[in-house]
């Protein structure tokens, strides 16, 4: 609190504030403008705006597979709740002495200890490292699209100079995010790599961005509250909140409804790494390796094509490339069926603050077809990671969206092919769970899990995840 003497000292510094101003003559010239000296800022991490691109064509890797050490068990056992998890009365009253005025007892990192922003466990380092891999690819992808497509290409897709400037600013944001995580991780932090994108047009570039930022954002939500380093988690939260805005902006550029869900979904680190790794061509020889699993790829054969007026007419293979998060293919859509620059209300999917379609992209009961790969494929940087699964035969399709994990039965039509029907589930009343850009995976069991322990599904994943364009 202020003392009488300190308060008097503050007042003595500002007498003009307390007294009525004396009359003054009008100035004869403009007053000098005070320009404060710039405050030194930390330097950014070194980046390359546009790296080389294309599939990996180098020598066979000398090291393959995820980073590993001794296993203590085949999987994490399912345990009952902590005995103290339900002891707090939650009645709106204070039950313990306050450590300071206006400071209720409890919380983590609230005892006055100076924060140290670093990794505090293997879990922390590996989680932050996969997040950094994601920041690097976004930085490269945004710059790559701006350098690859002409002004005329962007304008034909409905994106103006202001829109392109926004994409450039988002790339600049990624420099900050990469710098932040590099500083937290230290000298062993993963560095920028080279990449390969399944994109041939501006519309495909935009659609790929909204999908890539979807799994990047969700991949952080899945581990953020499990970090031992609460300090690093705070900074990462402030970074990923920016990425959430990027994902919504790319949905707007894609002519999609900007935020069709009430809650954003979180996924395990291995799911994010499975979706990200196939787009990394090569990394430097001394690159830090990751411990996360790469699952066999899963493909949604009739993923709703957002370039159509009626996406329910989507045929098989209406994506660019064969990947689990492949962008839409606009070239397969007949001119009469395309929604870009359509002047009919409810049929237009041009870039806009918001678009509301007369025909939804998907619906409960829609038949969804899948194919998937067997384990053992080389993927990721320098083809040095190997897809694996610990699960049995595929029996279910797991639908992961918002706060929900919903299973539907998988009907096999071949050794690595099958179908299911889109579920009719809700998070709350009037909030269909299956919506937005969401995740599906094939599993051998239908265990009950919630957002905080979703990673316990990993031993039962046969293939996937894949992104499903539900809305």
Largest sheet: 4 strands, antiparallel
The proportion of residues in beta strands is 5-15%
Instruction: Give the C-alpha Rg.
Output: 26 Å
* Count of DSSP strands: 14
Query: Can you count the helices?
Result: 8
What is the molecular shape? Answer: globular
Average pLDDT for all residues: 91
Pick out the low-confidence regions. Answer: 1-23
Oligomer: single chain
Explain what you see.
By secondary structure, this protein is α+β, with helices and mostly antiparallel strands. 26% of the residues lie in helices and 13% in strands. The chain contains eight helices and 14 strands. The chain has helices spanning 4-12, 15-18, 122-148, 151-156, 161-185, 202-221, 230-253, 269-276, and strands at residues 194-195, 280-282, 298-300, 367-372, 378-379, 385-386, 396-401, 404-409, 411-414, 417-421, 426-428, 431-432, 437-443, 461-469. The strands form five sheets. It has a four-stranded antiparallel β-sheet with strand order 3-4-10-9, with no helix packed on it. It has a four-stranded antiparallel β-sheet with strand order 8-7-13-14. A two-stranded antiparallel ribbon has the order 1-2. A hairpin with a 2-residue loop joins strand 9 (411-414) and strand 10. The longest helix has 27 residues, at 122-148. The model is unreliable at 1-23 (pLDDT under 50).
């Amino acid at each position: 609190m202020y003392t009488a003497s300190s308060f008097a000292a503050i007042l003595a510094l500002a007498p003009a504030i307390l007294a009525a101003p004396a009359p003054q003559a009008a100035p004869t010239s403009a007053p000098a403008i005070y320009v404060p000296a710039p405050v030194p800022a930390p330097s950014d991490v070194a980046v390359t705006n546009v790296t080389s691109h294309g599939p990996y064509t180098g020598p066979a890797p000398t090291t393959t597979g995820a980073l590993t050490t001794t296993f203590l068990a085949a999987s994490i056992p399912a345990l009952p709740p902590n005995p103290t998890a339900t002891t707090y009365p939650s009645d709106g009253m204070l039950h313990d002495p306050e450590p300071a005025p206006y400071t209720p007892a409890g919380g983590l990192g609230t005892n006055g200890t100076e924060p140290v922003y670093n990794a505090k466990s293997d879990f922390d380092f590996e989680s932050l490292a996969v997040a950094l891999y994601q920041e690097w690819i976004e930085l490269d992808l945004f710059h790559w699209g701006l350098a690859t497509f002409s002004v005329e290409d962007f304008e034909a897709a409905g994106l103006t100079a202001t829109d392109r400037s926004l994409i450039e600013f988002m790339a600049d944001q990624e420099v900050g995010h990469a710098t932040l995580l590099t500083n937290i991780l230290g000298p062993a932090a993963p560095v920028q790599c080279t990449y390969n994108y399944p994109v041939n047009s501006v519309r495909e570039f935009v659609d790929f961005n909204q999908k890539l930022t979807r799994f990047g954002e969700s991949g952080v939500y899945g581990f953020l509250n499990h970090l031992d380093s609460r300090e690093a988690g705070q900074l990462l939260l402030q970074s990923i909140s920016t990425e959430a805005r990027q994902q919504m902006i790319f949905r707007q550029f894609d002519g999609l409804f900007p935020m069709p869900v009430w809650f954003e979904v979180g996924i395990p680190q291995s799911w994010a790494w499975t979706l990200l790794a196939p787009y990394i061509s090569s990394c430097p020889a001394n690159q830090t390796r990751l411990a996360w699993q790469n699952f066999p790829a899963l493909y949604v054969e009739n993923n709703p094509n957002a370039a159509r007026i009626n996406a329910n007419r989507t045929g098989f293979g209406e994506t660019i490339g064969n990947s689990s998060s492949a962008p839409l293919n606009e070239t397969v859509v007949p001119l009469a069926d395309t929604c870009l620059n359509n002047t009919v209300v409810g049929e237009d999917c041009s870039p806009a603050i918001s678009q509301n379609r007369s025909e939804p992209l998907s619906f409960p009961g829609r038949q969804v077809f899948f194919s998937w790969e067997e384990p053992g494929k080389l993927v990721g940087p320098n083809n040095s990671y190997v897809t694996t699964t610990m699960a049995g035969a595929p029996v279910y399709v797991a639908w992961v969206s918002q706060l929900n994990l919903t299973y539907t039965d998988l009907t096999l039509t071949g050794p690595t092919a099958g179908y299911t029907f889109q579920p009719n589930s809700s998070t709350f009343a009037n909030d269909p769970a299956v919506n937005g850009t969401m995740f599906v995976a094939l599993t051998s069991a239908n265990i009950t899990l919630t957002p905080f322990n979703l990673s316990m599904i990993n031993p039962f994943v046969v293939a996937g995840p894949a992104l499903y364009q539900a809305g």
